[in-house]
Amino acid sequence: MESLQRMAGTLLAIFQTRLDLLSSEMEEERLNIGQMLLYGSIALFFFGLAIMLLTILIVVLLWDSYRLPVLGSFIVLYFVAGFLAWSASRSVAREKSKLFSASLAALAEDRDQLGPRP
Q: Domain map of the chain by residue range?
């Protein structure tokens, strides 16, 4: 009976350790995503501002002779860039996430140490 209690205690300790690892991974992932969103938003804002100002500069420089072809070229360029970015975001969204990989590996190791699989 005592060995059964020790084994149950050990299993509970293992489970608690794995839950702690899982919660740590979730917190770390949450912080990483928050930082990525913040820095990505800032970068996109400034890149967008730079592109807009560059576009205005080029259109103003060519206003008298090539106004419409330049505006049309920029429209096509921005449409193609937006489509490529949209396609890239879809492919990234389809990739398999490695979230909780350390927890899953630790649980698999625990299962292997406890005995053979049925």
A: 2-114
